[in-house]
From TrEMBL:
Keywords: Oxidoreductase. It comes from the Bacteria. This is Oxidoreductase. Gene3D superfamilies: NAD(P)-binding Rossmann-like Domain (3.40.50.720).
Amino acid sequence: MQTVVITGGTDGLGKGLALHYLRQGAHVIAVGSTAEKGQALLAEAKALPTGRADFVRSDLTSVAASQDLAERLAGDHPVVDKLILCAQRYRLFGDRVTTREGFEHSFALAYLSRFVLSHGLHDALRAARRPVIMNVGTPGVPLGRIHWDDLQLTRTYSGAKASLQSFRANDLLGVAFGVLHAGSGVSYIGYNPGVVSTGMPESLPQPLRAATKAFFTMFATSVPKAIAPMTALLDDPPAEPFAAYWQKRRLSLDGRAFDGQDALRLHDLTRELIPR
Ligand SMILES: NC(=O)c1ccc[n+]([C@@H]2O[C@H](COP(=O)([O-])OP(=O)(O)OC[C@H]3O[C@@H](n4cnc5c(N)ncnc54)[C@H](OP(=O)(O)O)[C@@H]3O)[C@@H](O)[C@H]2O)c1
């Protein structure tokens, strides 16, 4: 039985992937911060004839919680076949928010949790037959940058700037992971699903929430359709340690977004930020 860990596995793309792999007979461990969503997933899983579902409640804005989760998962599951990173909550508007550990919210949730889990589960992943990590974000979108002199955006914060920085940081996380763990057999995929109709608009303020929902109804891909190319890649990952995709299209790794030196620089800075 495959073991598939999915952060953000209780809603949107993550939930779609959770149900897919349960139907394939996998042991799916879905992580989210809301108990109700976790219970709803478990109820749906119960109605399926195959698979085994577990829900782990964890607030991944906390580095300590992400580290505890990685340690607990690695302890309980010596072999993890797939790690899928979907946990996200956009804070595009409003004032800068810091987590209890003092990190800017988007940096902590969308980037640091993925950094901790990717590296923290590496040993359990490399024990699998075809291990893969899929970091779901926006590779290929030429927006945003790393604010090297102020990663926590203390001086010139905006929600959009913070979200975009976290996306670009995840591009570099994949590159660095591929370099640092080359030869371990783990494939790291940065994946852009395009516009998909998920629970994402729920975190937006009105009237943007209603407008985004209306836009999604007209233009967005459904979750079942969006996960088809994702599962194809997850089940047959590329041989290279890191690859990036926008739906089915493989992206060139030339250019600043995937710069190797930037990737290792951010890796080292991140290690310094994280307490243990
Ligand atoms: N949808 C799109 O059009 C689109 C486009 C490009 C990229 N993406 C990327 O695809 C990924 C999945 O997006 P989605 O649209 O499927 O999202 P979604 O429907 O909003 O689901 C987000 C998931 O993250 C979990 N989550 C949020 N905050 C959390 C926290 N503090 N700790 C733990 N879990 C947390 C949520 O569960 P709780 O609410 O219970 O915490 C939920 O399971 C994201 O990385 C997103 O950036 C999406």
